[in-house]
Amino acid sequence: MATVNSVNTLTNLGASSVNLKHPSKTVHRSQQKLLARAEMSSLNSSKSTVLESSSLAEFSSSVNLSSTNFKTNGTGKPKLTKSLSVLKNPKTASTLSLQSKMRPSVAESVTSLQTKNAASHKASQPKKDKDFVKVGRKSVVKKVSESVTRPTSASLLKQREKVVSTFVESPNFVPNDLDESVLEKYSEDIISAQNNENESFTQEYNQGQEAFKPNEYPPTPHQLSIYHKICPDSDLDSDSTESVSPKRKERPSKYFITQCFKITNGAIDIGLLSQCVNKIARSYKVLTTRFYQNSRIIDADIEAFIDNENTEYALDHFTEHREVTGQLTTEYVTKQLRIWIEEQAEKKTLALTFRVFVFTSFESPKAFVTPVYSHAVGDELTCIVVSNEIFGLYCAALGQEYGAAGVMEAYTAREQNDDFTDFARRFPGIGGTTSVEVGKKATTKAKQAIVVWRHTCIESVRETVSGTERTALDAQRRGLLAECAALRVQVGQLTSAKAAREIQLTALRYQRRQIDIDNNAAGVDVCIDPVTNQVSEISRAAKAAIIKIVLGEEASDDNIAHLLQKHDCSTEVLAKIGHLNLDAFSSLSDDELSLMGLLSKDRRKVLALAEYCRNRVKESMQEQTKVKFALERKISKLQREYDMCCTNLKAAQHSLDISDDMVIRLGNILNPPSFENKVPVLSLERKKTPSENGHNFKNDENDDTQWRQDYNQIWGFLPFEIDGSVVKNLREFKEACKMSERQQMKNRGKSIPYETKESDNSSSDNDDCESNDTTSNILGDMSDIKPQNSKECCLAAFAVMLKHIAGSEKFLIGLHESFRKNGLLVGPVSDIVPIKFDFTAKDVTFNAIISQVRIALRKCSQVTAETPFADIADKLDVDSTFPIQFEYYPEKETLTWRHAGLSTRDLLRMKAFRSIELEGNSCIIDIERLWTVNEQSQACEFKLILVEDAEEIVGAIQYRRSLYDDDKVQKWIAKFITTLEGIEFGPKKLAISNLISRYYSSVLLHNDGEDGINKHASKRSLASISTLPGTETNSLFNM
């Protein structure tokens, strides 16, 4: 009977495996054979019923999962994720054994499965995210750790979700001696059935778009930047440790935000507060984000996981209670927060991104509640929104003694549209595109951001001359250019002449050398002058030539017989002197002929012939000497000409080099090469206390000495108000500038709207407006224009004030830029970016500064969301921290935050206090917000925050108490307000010098209040409730 049940169970399991969808169209044949062997072996087995039932059930469930592994989606329908492969490689088995160390104990699973009977086979079906390790025929269900089953990227999805089975040899292993035809039949049946069922899923699985699971979302570039700062790549970190400059090494503890609330006059209900924290975390899912990257895969993607909506949290999941035995102070709270943040930074992980600490003491009724947020899940406004929601819900639930659960259930998040996870999925370049397109878009955006921030933080400098000096240098350069042209022509001619003379000298020297070679090679003969008896040596060739000249061409030797016969001498003469040679014949005298007894007639003829021979020999020898002398004279002449040509060429070349060098120098002076210069980050002059001993903390981010003190004592706040008339004047000024520019373009025949104008208006700073009539017409039309925000004017006025007190002409300050959309409240959707101010132009005007601000804000809005500035700063090697910062909330944004429950004090980051009387109780709870500190603001010294309202602008100066005193900051506030009051539209543009000159005449007018600032009357002061009519809010600090 047990055998029949087992067969039925296997049949059902086989059928269930047939109906499952599979991403591939075929199933591995070895898996089908394994299923067939299991069924056949169960039919032929002779073991006991109990053992057979239990082992067969376990084995059947394992075999069933060896074919497919599925997960259940939100609708409860099983969704196929990956096919399983049986790994028998020893190397793979060793890898699995290492992975199994991270999983729960196998013994517990074995014990629980052995107690089940054959009737509970279907109940033992494996659930999602299970892994199976088979020992013989017994399969053990083991829960796979989340780090193993999480996918990292589309290319590695199959590898990461694979579930493996390891087989270990044992005596109870299933025999393999089965009929191959039976196995083949089972395999073909299963394959055909699965091919008919998986067509639709295969088509969906192979689509190019990536679908995100409900419990995960793609990290935004800002989240990835924070993750890489806190969790740097170990390989890159080890390779570039020495190459990175010290200022680029940032502390991971910077990327946290802390708040502190003090609760007095009532014991805090930690359990209820923990429930409220869990409820808020469940409502704003980004707070539950956990980041993960598989370290075993090279260049694995970073993934962001969030909890499901129906996840039940323990009370201590987000909340940590710390009881203090001694006195509870803010110094102690600050120290504990710093210790915890440093511990999280040393772990190099982002598993905890949101935490709430509750500090209580036995000796004091007060308690401190300190939420800690990571920059990866929110910015400063996120912290304020979440903290206000937590305490609003806590107070509402605390007032209901029996209805706290109902208050929790009725709570809804303030984000009416989409939360941050939806924002991340629709982020430009992520949602609805493939990973390749995402990479291309990210690269394009990064290149655009590099261009924008390089232009902002790095400038090309060229120091040129102008005026009469430039004119004189230009004329001198033109003259030198003409001189260089003439010298080049002269050098060319001299070079050609030098080459020609070199050729002639070479030819003549060759001829002279050939004469000497001929004389030495052919030998020489001695020749004696018959008249002077001078002995001379001539070459044999010359001697042969002389013989032919004297005796004739037909003479073969120097015998004169042929000469005598030619001149018809007598036979007697031939007989007596015909045997003489030319030399002997030329030396005959009359006495020698008389002794020979020759007739007088014959003697005269012979003497004449002898004289003829002597003269011819003498002439020939002289002619040979003349050839040598002529060659030597010609060689000497050419040598002199060659030397003179070389001297002139050298002089001309030297003159040309001097002139050419002077031309290059003058060209560099007139058009100097540009070089890159980093625009300095502005830092105001501060006071130095005796305790500092000359140590400058500026830009010393790694020194925590200044941060070991109480958070409550680090920052100082000075609020101020700008009168409604000044705000109205600023709006009129901006709109008048717009209309004036439109009018000028209309007069020039252009129809380009003001909003699309991209060129810098600073080039026309010195141009006047059309006329006083035009100005009055423009101001008269102001009633038809809706006022816009005054951010550009306030930022330009702030820059003028900074220029005056710092004395810098060109500098950078930090601007808080937000890219929230569609009512998004919670999430890392802001960044601090640089903005450059340039006052170096002569007679610079306030209109030019506004133009700089307008262009900078437009470019900033194009690249801030997709590319964090900190990453670009690392590539450009520029500062990413700014001691002076500016933050502005326009009227529309202020209205949005008011609807979200934030007050003016919240936006200004000021301290806030509220007393709450609980319903049904006589107890009054006092809740005071002590601080909201961004750890990244360690380098910040001075920050101006402005909140624009319908009729006024409220601001606050946040400054470091260790660097500045209250009196100095109050004077700076007065100068800033004076600058705003001096902005007015007129026929001529505002000169910066005129605005600064007002400081010395108008600052004293503001010294009416106790703090040195005139308190303008306003309809809504900082101490008034600013909750909008008809707006429900749980916020405590709506002041």
UniProtKB/TrEMBL annotation:
Query: What is the superkingdom listed in this entry's lineage?
Result: Eukaryota
Q: Enumerate composition-biased segments (Polar residues).
A: 95-118
**Annotated spans, Disordered:** 95-131, 740-783
What protein name applies here?
Uncharacterized protein
The species is Physocladia obscura
